[in-house]
Amino acid sequence: MVTTPEIRHVPREASGGASSYFIAYRPGRRAAGITRGIWLSVSGLVSLVTASAVQAASDRDLEARIKLLENELKAVKEQLADRDEKTNPVSRTAQDEIIVDDSVWREIECGETRLEVGGFIDLDVHLSKYSDGDLVSGSIGRDLYLPLLTPVSPDNPTSSSIDTDFSAKTSRISLATVTPVRNHAISTRIEMDFLLSPGGNERISNSYNPRLRRAYVDYDGWRIGQDWTTFQTLQAMPESASFFAPAESQVFVRQPMIRYTTGNFQLALENPNTNLSGVGLTGDGALPDAVLRYNLRSKDYDIAVSALVRQLRYRDAGINAKAFGWGVSLAGRVYLGTDDIRFSLQGGEGIGRYVGLGIAPAAVLNAASTDIVTIPVLSGNVAYRWMLGNTSISGGYSFIRIDNHKELTGPAATAGSQSAFVALTHSLAPKLTVAAEFLYGERKIESGLKGDIRRLTLSVRQGF
Fold first, then answer.
1. 152-181 burial, b if ≥16 CB within 10 A, otherwise e?
2. Gap between the Cα atoms of 243 and 64, Å rounded
3. Cβ(210)–Cβ(193) under 8 Å?
4. Domain covering 106-463, topology
5. pLDDT (tens digit, 9 = 90+) per residue, 62-111?
6. Rounded distance, CA 27 to CA 186, Å?
């Protein structure tokens, strides 16, 4: 029996997709079984081909989506890397270099707590020439530029000296943890190096005791423990080969505190201590030092405006004197492509402990009236970092002016200091850098005498 072909139309609603057509045959009674078998086979083959095509399209769509997600992830990583480079660049002086910690972190899982270990080995070689004297072996001024210790003498034509020092005391180790607690996280950090150590000498072993740098816990915007003072802007620290190049200009203090951060604002209560000229440090303050800070951040700059209020107090031998000190600071970093400008300007009265590594006291005791007289200071710096691939060139200038009450402090009090430096840093491998720096510093006392230091520093650092 002859079969006749018939074209059939399947509507869109019935097919679940686009409208379609297919050819059907009306077989005779004798060929019905064979035709039915052929039809089922063809239908099955068509279904298989259709399913394969749909699956292929689905796979192509999935691959496209995965590719899109990969591209988006890559873009996010590049943005984060760019942000990290600007806010926390690999720096010889360290948001934590000396400042931002350029350690290579290694993670360890301890239950729900993630432990991170990092640090670096650092060797510094200093060749120092002083115009007006010398610093004794073991002095902290031989390990880093401390303006207060720059010798000043009336015999400068005949008293200059040259010293060479090797030191690995800036080597550092850090431990940090993060522990999830419900919908929050608790993080901690403890950090040590070997500077200012009371143990060890250069006779045989050069064995130095570790010292505490930072130790704190973070939870929901609170930081409790020891950290950089909130009055200090880490992003303003210039890159240098030595531990700390522009020492006289910068706010530089680590101390115990309670700090709260919300949005761009930070408020902190910090350890009080009064540094009096001729007396030294006194722990007689009843009120904590208070700091209010506002951070302005974008891809082009990272700037902080800070204000400090503190009580100065001295009690001894029937004297109970107190005064209030205050300070303001504007500091930060401006990004110019891969280059940047770093700057700071701060001033106030009674903030000597916070500025210039103790080059100025906060106040002086007037023995006649048993009053505390605050000492005004003004300091600032500017530095430029020029990036050339794996090499950077940095240079800058810094200063401090101290308005002493000469009738109370005497002619030997430091009236001011200034310095300039240029540093070359080259990355040999990830976390392995070599650097060279030349620094010139000058200190002036109230009598008008001056002394200077010229220092060449070579440094090698490897993070681990």
1. bbeebeeebeebebebebbbbbbbbbbbee
2. 51
3. yes
4. Porin (2.40.160)
5. 455 445 445 544 454 444 444 444 433 333 333 333 334 445 556 677 77
6. 79
